[in-house]
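Hi R.,

Here are the chain sequences for the assembly we discussed:
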Amino acid sequence: MNVLLDHLPEFREGFIGTVLLTLSSGLLAMVLGVIVAGFRVSPVPPLRFLGAAWVTLFRNTPLTLLFLIAWFVVPVIFWPGLSPWTKAILALGFYTSAFVCEAVRSGISTVPLGQAEAARSIGMTFIQTLRLIVLPQATRTVIAPLSSIFIALTKNSAIAGAFSVAELFGVQKLLSDKGFAIVPIFLFVAIAYLIITFTISGLFRLLERRMGVAR
Amino acid sequence: MSSSVLYDAPGPKARVRNIIYTVLGSALVLGLVVFSVYRLNEKGVLEPEVWNIFNNAGVRANIRDGVLSTLKVFALAGVLSLVLGLLLAVARLSDHKWISWVATGFIELFRAVPLLITIYALWVLFLSYKDDLGVIGENASFWALVIGLTVYNACVQAEVLRAGVNAVPRGQVEAAYALGLRKTQVMTMLLLPQAVRSMLPTIISQLVVTLKDTSLGYIVTYAELLFAARTMANNIIVNGENPITAVVIVVAAIYIAMCLLLSSLATWIEKRGRRAKTGITVAHAGGTGGAPEDVPGDVGMPMDGPPDVSK
Amino acid sequence: MKLRKSAAVAATIAALALTATACGGDSGTAGDKPKGGSGGKDQPKLPTYTVATDVKVDSPTLKKAQKAGKIVFGAKNDQPYLGFEDTDGKRSGFDIEIAKMVAADLGFKPSQIEFKTVDSGVRETTISKGDVDLYVGTYTINDERKKQVGFSGPYFLAGADLLVRKGEKDIKGPETVKGKKVCSIVGSTPLQEIKKSKYGAETVELAKYSECVQQLLNNEVDAVTTDDAILQGYAAQRPEKLEVVGKPFTEEPYGVGMKKDDKALRDAVSDALENHQKNGNYKKAYDATLGLSGSKPQDPPALERY
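And here is the predicted structure of the full complex:
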């Protein structure tokens, strides 16, 4: 127990770090994911190709490798001078966006055909159909997979600890480097993760109940 | 792919617009590619010397060993996770309350803790009891990685299978009981085969995740592909620079190739499965007709209800 | 259809990769040999160590190693002139020589030494749990660590310093890093030091020093801090790009790490170090490794036995 009490500031910082990292990269992943999902079903072939390439690239690359790219390739090729936070958010957000995209895409496919047909027949464009008719309905089916994607994201953020971002796993490493017994630290860190992941799944379950209108 | 429910067959105006978008989109993609290549060239990444390192016998041996150790862990963890996943799924569906509770607790716990932490904890545990564990103690980092991956992925696979079992129409089970089959028989002869078949794409995309997650071995000093790549990227110097970009490109290509091979296996199996009309067809995405990505992979989703076993 | 195509592409890449690795040519160059590390005519040669026979030390670790016929050393693999591994898997450096000296006196031939790459973050774990028998890897002796592991040594005295890009104007020492970005590895002592308000640096923490150096070269950070001996090695790899400031601000005595309560082994390793300091091997090994990096020669430090 002493380890926890003596290092409360570190634990708090790590906890907040993990939460913030999850939130901000989750937001990025949502935005990118929905856009890329739109690309994947769009009428314009190069956009479809772009979407497919995006998903293939980011889904099949280990996250650690993406972190290495964000740290050592992106600054050389694109923008130098990003902060460790930005790099972590980019890596996590891009990686997760591929999964969000696929969730949204399979959500789109569960919307009854008639809906899209009706939308088209009253003259809606592709973007209108997607934005006003299909996506709002897809949301319902997408919530369950999204919840697990966000939980995965929370856990994946542990990898950022090795890349200069203060988060929970980093706390564990820091303290065990300082020479504290590893088991209690583990326990506290695991509990902290459980708190975050259970909160997420709880929130999503709530959301699901709210949105779960009878079809 | 010729037509989608989401948009009409384009008329003249739309066709013009689509062409404009096509041109713009292609220009964007091309521009990005050209810019990257330009920058890479400017930074000396495209110099022949940099790529020549991959002709070096040592570098090749390192990459080969890395791939082999990655595949070794993956093969073992993949098989074990499927076996354990099957057991966990059956346990969670068990009628005996306490078995079901234990399985649920196990699954919930290991799904919630980051894999990185599980692996690290197992490693420390194995090292602590090194002498009593025989084979496992000898090779603690390898087994920590294998068991960690197994436990985590088994939990996910168990949930996937459970969703598959739940998706089998009730009537079939009732019919089976009416025929006089016992509980075990219903599970092994009726529910599991159908669950496995209907969930194959998801199961395989989880295997892809398993393959990628072998890269977490760096935390326990296991020298898999990414570990080897990092060492090489840091220790080799060509033209006064570390060839990090080149190594990253090559290693990413290898990972993507391995994962794509695995997912195309999924597509192939799924197609075979669909040919047989007796199975439950999986809801598959419209749009671009992609298949293995049907169900978003990472952690299998907590599909508490039956998935959309459609129409 | 698209998928079949992608599968084909994947298969092609995989096949290419496999054939490429399988028929491995020697034609390529991997410039990872520290300059003049071996072979040069005027270069100081590495000493050879006489292997002791019939070593009897009442140490559980050693007895197990003798039974297994090999001794496992933990080491770093990315520190030129200290603990470095080239693409052929050959290790070199001062730490590696120290390991060979100690192993020789404990009765192990070079072929019986197994090196294992252990990064800073997991040193205590691997040592205290017996994953490695001994550890040589720029391992600073300090009281916090002594609670977990045992140390023989020190065999070298280093001090935290700063590595900067050649021609750096602003950073002249630890007092001038205020507001600058300084990189080091997670939890390292120099990092804790430079974070203090006295110096006030902004810090970036990565897993490996070599990754910090890369960040420095990419202009992503302004300085790298760790022990001068390590930094000298990196500077010597790229003399035209990097330099060491040369104002050490901490003391880092390097020791050989081992299990905490193994006093017999601790003494045996100390004896081995003392023996080689006296017979001149220490100096020879230093000249042939660290000395080449431009690190200042120093007298072997007095051993601290406990």
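The two ends of chain C are 72 Å apart (CA to CA). Chain C has two domains: 60-157+253-293, 160-244.

Let me know if anything looks off.

Best,
T.
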